[in-house]
Design brief:
Number of helices: 0
Radius of gyration: 24 Å
Largest sheet: 5 strands, antiparallel
Number of strands: 47
Length: 452
């Protein structure tokens, strides 16, 4: 596993940077004292923030500074993917409700975390009812009671029209698809979950058959295996790939015969190119790792981290480790080595012609764009490209102050911290305008900024 980028580090000095004035606006969202920050949740569009605040009666959720109803306890705050809806679990009079857009659903003995559909229009969650039974509540309507809802996994199709989950009744397992039971089965492969194709027409899942596991796709069971890893549909839904274990060796199965066996297939690395034409993954043989594209292994390294395809699917980029150093490979060309490459930081420009990532060398963090190291700072994160691919933008920290950097030019306006949802990069609203959340003087602001 490659080193994490934004680890804490000692204060350091570097050559002075000349900040530039850029057009920006600040919109106050809420007060943001230290004591509420651990519970804070940011909407994916960065326009709303919610957190838990103590009250005389217990706790309340505060959304953009507006206090909601008070409850004995609050948990599992979740925004919808479009940022327009908010749901959370709340306890009142020893019963639990799911509060959706300010409206209580329930009561139940317990409720699980909310799961929104990808577009945010639908909502599902697990609830405990009388006798310890569990139900899945979808759009406010409870389904059939079961003894267990498998690992609490609920899967919406990408278009939100379909939903699937695993359930156990009388020691038999069922997959419930759009309210209809499929089974019974001896068990379901909940480690792999259930995967819909992009158009929602196909569903893949794993069942236990005796001592073997089988992938089921389009209601047809595939060849049995000792174990099964990630299930991945191609973007057009026509192809399915998965990792399978047989006699101690792992193979990727896609479109018929399995690929060459390896000791290990890297978790989370199996992926199709955006056009669906290629499939890639990281594989380990002995103590060496290699990137495999359409069954063909590349050069071996001590380790492989993040892997991404360019938007046109023609180029694969991935981070590798050789001894104590890490570098990025683009196609078959290695770039310069660093002490570490930031996990999750690789990003292609929209036109696929440029690649950026974050790296560490000694005390310093820097963005690397087109193979060239940019200015060094104490911390760097959230690297992205503008929609026209011209401008690399990222957030940086120097001497305890946070700011953005566009085209290697630091902004003059400074903050205590810059916040984005987990795993997200700086987001553009137009060709020239991007946004983020920033903390200053115990307040949090939506900042919208123009590139030059």
């Amino acid at each position: 596993m490659l080193a994490l980028l934004l680890a804490s580090l000692a204060a350091s000095s570097a050559s002075a940077q000349l900040p530039v004035d850029r057009k920006y606006t600040e919109t106050l969202l809420a007060s943001f004292p230290d004591e509420v920050r651990d519970s804070a949740v940011i909407s994916p569009d960065c326009r709303r923030i919610a957190y838990i605040e103590p009250t005389d009666a217990g706790q309340t959720v505060v959304v953009n500074g507006q206090r909601q109803s008070a409850y004995e306890g609050v948990a599992a705050i979740e925004f919808s993917p479009d940022g327009k809806r908010l749901a959370y679990a709340a306890r009142k009079s020893d019963a639990w409700h799911l509060v959706v857009d300010g409206v209580e659903e329930g009561p139940y003995d317990r409720v699980g975390p909310p799961v929104f559909s990808p577009a945010g229009g639908r909502l599902a969650y697990v609830a405990m009812v009388a006798g310890g039974k569990r139900v899945v509540v979808i759009d406010g309507r409870p389904g059939k009671p079961y003894d267990v809802i498998s690992a609490g996994l609920i899967e919406f199709s990408p278009d939100g029209r379909r939903v699937a989950y695993g359930a156990v009744r009388d020691h038999r397992c069922y997959l419930v698809i759009d309210g209809e039971e499929v089974g019974p089965h001896e068990d379901l492969g909940t480690r792999t979950g259930y995967r819909f194709s992009a158009d929602g027409s196909r569903l893949a899942y794993v069942i236990l058959d005796g001592t073997k596991l089988r992938v089921v796709v389009d209601a047809a069971a595939q060849t049995p295996h000792d174990d099964v890893g990630d299930l991945v549909f191609s973007p057009d839904g026509k192809r399915l790939a998965y990792a399978a274990l047989e006699r101690g060796r792992w193979r990727v199965v896609v479109d018929g015969p399995p690929h060459t066996p390896y000791d290990t297939i890297g978790d989370g690395t199996l992926q199709f190119s955006p056009d669906g034409a290629k499939v890639a993954y990281a594989a380990k043989q002995g103590d060496r790792w290699m990137a495999v594209v359409d069954g063909e292994p590349g050069k071996a390294y001590d380790g492989i981290g993040e892997m991404i395809f360019s938007p046109d699917g023609q180029t694969l980029a991935y981070a590798v480790r050789t001894g104590e150093f890490e570098t990025v490979v683009v196609g078959d060309r290695e770039q310069r080595a660093f002490d570490a490459v930031g996990g999750g930081s690789l990003v292609f420009s929209p036109n696929g012609r440029r690649l950026g990532y974050i790296a560490r060398s000694g005390w310093a963090r820097c963005a690397v764009v087109d193979g060239r190291r940019k200015r060094r700072f104490d911390m760097v994160g959230y690297l992205a490209f503008s929609p026209d691919s011209r401008h690399p933008v990222y957030a940086a920290v120097r001497d305890g102050r946070a700011f953005t950097v566009v085209d290697d030019k630091p902004a003059a306006h400074r903050y205590d911290a810059i916040w984005l949802p987990h795993g997200q990069k700086l987001t553009f609203d137009s060709r020239t305008r991007f946004r983020y959340l920033a903390v200053k003087d115990d307040n949090i602001y939506l900042v919208e900024e123009e590139v030059e």
